[in-house]
Amino acid sequence: MPQPEARPDSLLPEPHPAAAALAPVLALPILEMARFRRLMNYEGWEVDLPRMCVDTAYAYQCLATAHTSSDERLRSTALRLFEAYDRNASPSPLLH
């Protein structure tokens, strides 16, 4: 049985330029975010979770505010969320 011919690289379709620029984005931990909002509300601070998902500056502002709290649970939750945001903000090692 004949072997299929290998296609030269020049015949392979080029990837779309935007595909190379996109980095993978990990889902934010929604249960952790709900806990964060609840703990922030206990402190008297309102949090808009949908906005936190699309507005990184707002999210970092909320997380920084949480670090001023005397509630250790709120500070540790904010730290875990910061790590999740930081993972998504870091450039993908696959692109280098």
End-to-end CA span: 42 Å
| Total beta strands | 0
Strand content: under 5%
Helix content: 55-70%
Number of helices in the DSSP assignment: 5
Output the helix-strand order.
Answer: HHHHH
Give a verbal description of the structure.
The chain has a domain at 45-70. It has 96 residues and is mostly helical. It has helices at residues 17-21, 30-42, 49-54, 56-66, 72-89. It is elongated.
Structure at a glance:
Helices cover 55% and strands 0% of the residues. The chain is mostly helical and 96 residues long. The protein has a domain at 45-70.
What layout of secondary structure does this protein have?
Layout: H1 17-21, H2 30-42, H3 49-54, H4 56-66, H5 72-89
Helix pairs in contact: 2-5, 4-5
Key attributes of the depicted protein:
mainly alpha; 5 helices; 96 residues
